[in-house]
């Protein structure tokens, strides 16, 4: 039976249908869930996609964390359900306190939009499970506030626990230790700035994003078996 993935749409999200298509090519039954809903239904996994939730007013993700659906997302994650936030979704997860650290303006205050070489730094997450550490991926980035930061103690703890799951080969935004993606301590909540849904086919430049989505769906199969 195929996994059911809820892709949350906030006002201003713009990548939800790309995520649905990318997951669909891997056999998942992905569907869009409105931010005003209070239930994820029968979802086996959740993705918070990229975009500009609520116009990024105040700061990215600051308003979206109060959306009714986020209570359901938190409850789902507390039960061990896989949750992935991509770009703006990553920002929402940090604002909601579901991931450590925060995202701030890129160094140089420049918006970056290009393909970035990234390396898998840990297999201890639902998005990288089974993907060998050191695997290099070509993934698009498209953000103005992707500069990941946290205090020294949090960084040391995450490094030791394998919560840094993805790094840039060449740091595009000033993120501490070139961090591109992190997980919570349990590994079931992951946020990353690169867009795997925009790397779903070699016809559009890279299919490397499907490696990560494949790992996510593999993790779902484990948690639901």
Question: Short summary of the structure?
Answer:
This protein is α/β, with parallel strands linked by helices. The termini are close together.
At the fourth level of CATH, the homologous superfamily is: Class I glutamine amidotransferase (GATase) domain
CATH class: Alpha Beta
Distance from first to last alpha carbon: 11 Å
Radius of gyration: 16 Å
Which outline best applies?
Answer: globular
Calculate the mean pLDDT score and round it: 96
Low-confidence stretches: none
Q: Indicate the CATH topology.
A: Rossmann fold
- SS summary, helix count: 5
Estimated share of beta-strand residues: 25-35%
Order of helices and strands: EHEEHEHEEEEHEEEH
| Arrangement of strands in the largest sheet | 2-1-3-4-11-10-9-6-7
Helix content: 10-25%
Structural class by helix and strand composition: alpha/beta
The biggest beta sheet is recorded as: 9 strands, mixed
Please give the domain count. Answer: 1
> What is the architecture at the second tier of CATH?
3-Layer(aba) Sandwich
The total beta strand count reads 11
Describe this structure in words.
The protein is an alpha/beta fold and 225 residues long. 24% of the residues lie in helices and 25% in strands. The chain contains five helices and eleven strands; from the N terminus they run βαββαβαββββαβββα. β10 and β11 (189-192) form a beta hairpin. The longest helix is centred in the last third of the chain and has 16 residues, at 209-224. The radius of gyration is 16 Å and the shape is globular. The N and C termini lie close together (11 Å).
